[in-house]
């Protein structure tokens, strides 16, 4: 019989392995995980019929006449409560079919997204863009193989996807206690070049690379005629920009400032509600401000805890009211940026 402590330990270890990829810890954690798994009959827990009967409410939010969003109500890691649905998808209805941006974190979720799209149009999904390699944005690809959709991403993002392989599917199933079910891994087959432009069913689209701002190979999608940008996890709305261990902070600042120059009227993000270019400017200034204070503090031989106090005192009054998670996230910001100085 699997105990709740064992299940909780496995979930924590998987989250650390998948999200942090701290190589000097990863080998030890994998061994520890195997030791835990070998002592329990864990398989029966995750073959739950709950995955088959998961009830999702994938409502569609109109953005403009031909652009729609499917916004997840959850922010954070996949959990039993959110059943793995923790990221947004957006789609464009064109003359010749649907262009979809991100497919969610499981085949179940991909199929639910497909149903939601059918509530708007009977046109098939002909093109899928995966914004980046984090599994909550692309494991739903399998839901679109029957439409013959062309699945698109960057070379670097696909390389990470293939490196991770089946691991994210198994990790998400464990973190959600089986709610994400079994997912057939489908990788993008069309690889983008930096600055590539295409016309999808009469809609002009430009692809922007962030130079690994959030993760290796991030892709943003820009509709120049409608001045709408799809940002994946590079762009944010009510939450602070998501910094990661393998992201590049200076490139994030540069990318955010480049997006500001486009003067977007609508910004569609990987998590949270639709927003405007003002949010991108806010994010650029915040990240640049923290980066500056961390660099200065490091040069003055200050410890991370001292710098956290400096950042909170100097930037908190302005930015705390602008984000839902300033106080919970600023410590992680400083610690991650501090490591970049070493």
In terms of topology, how is this protein built?
Blueprint: H1 4-20, H2 23-38, H3 43-46, E1 61-64, E2 67-70, E3 89-94, E4 97-101, H4 107-118, E5 125-129, E6 150-154, H5 155-164, H6 167-175, E7 190-192, E8 197-200, E9 203-209, E10 219-223, E11 228-230, H7 249-262, E12 266-268, H8 277-299, H9 304-319, H10 326-341
Parallel strand pairs: 4-5, 5-6, 6-7, 11-12
Antiparallel strand pairs: 1-2, 2-3, 3-4, 8-9, 9-10, 10-11
Helix pairs in contact: 1-2, 1-6, 7-8, 8-9, 8-10, 9-10
CATH architecture of the largest domain: 4-Layer Sandwich
The structural domain count equals: 3
- Number of distinct beta strands: 12
Rg result:
20 Å
Please state the structural category.
alpha/beta
Oligomer: single chain
**CATH class wording of the largest domain:** Alpha Beta
Report strand %.
15-25%
- The CATH homologous superfamily of the largest domain is called Metallo-beta-lactamase domain
- Spatial sequence of strands, sheet with the most strands: 1-2-3-4-5-6-7
Mean pLDDT: 87
The largest pleated sheet is described as: 7 strands, mixed
**Overall 3D shape:** globular
Protein name: Metallo-beta-lactamase family protein
Domain Metallo-beta-lactamase: 86-271
Short description:
The protein is of the alpha/beta class. 40% of the residues lie in helices and 16% in strands.
What characteristics describe this protein?
alpha/beta, 10 helices, RibonucZ/Hydroxyglut_hydro, 3 domains, five-stranded mixed β-sheet, Metallo-beta-lactamase family protein, single chain, Metallo-B-lactamas, NDM-1-like
């Amino acid at each position: 019989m699997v105990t709740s402590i064992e299940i909780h330990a496995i979930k924590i270890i998987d989250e650390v392995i998948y999200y942090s990829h701290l190589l000097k810890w990863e080998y030890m954690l994998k061994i520890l995980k195997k030791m835990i798994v070998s002592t329990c009959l864990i398989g029966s827990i995750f073959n739950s019929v709950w995955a088959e009967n998961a009830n999702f409410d994938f409502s569609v939010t109109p953005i403009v006449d031909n652009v729609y969003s499917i916004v997840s109500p959850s922010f954070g890691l996949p959990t039993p409560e959110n059943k793995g649905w923790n990221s947004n998808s957006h789609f464009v209805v064109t003359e010749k079919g649907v262009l979809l941006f991100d497919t969610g974190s499981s085949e179940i979720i991909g199929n639910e997204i497909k149903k939601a799209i059918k509530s708007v149009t009977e046109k098939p999904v002909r093109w899928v863009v995966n914004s980046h390699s984090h599994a909550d944005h692309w494991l739903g690809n399998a839901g679109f193989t029957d439409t013959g959709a062309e699945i698109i991403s960057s070379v670097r993002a696909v390389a990470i996807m293939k490196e991770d392989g089946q691991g994210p599917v198994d990790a998400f199933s464990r973190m959600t206690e089986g709610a994400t079910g079994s997912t057939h891994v489908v990788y993008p087959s069309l690889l983008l070049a930096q600055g590539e432009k295409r016309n999808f069913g009469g809609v002009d689209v430009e692809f922007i690379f962030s130079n690994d701002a959030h993760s290796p190979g991030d892709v943003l999608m820009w509709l120049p005629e409608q001045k709408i940008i799809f940002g994946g996890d590079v762009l944010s709305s009510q939450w602070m920009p998501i910094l990661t261990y393998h992201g590049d902070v200076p490139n994030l600042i540069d990318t955010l400032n480049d997006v500001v120059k486009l003067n977007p009227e609508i910004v569609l993000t990987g998590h949270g509600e639709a927003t405007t270019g003002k949010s991108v400017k806010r994010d650029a200034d915040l990240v640049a401000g923290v980066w500056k204070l961390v660099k200065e503090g490091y040069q003055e031989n200050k410890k991370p805890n001292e710098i956290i106090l400096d950042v909170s005192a100097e930037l908190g009054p302005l930015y705390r009211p602008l984000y839902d998670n300033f106080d919970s996230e600023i410590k992680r910001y400083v610690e991650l940026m501090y490591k970049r100085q070493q």
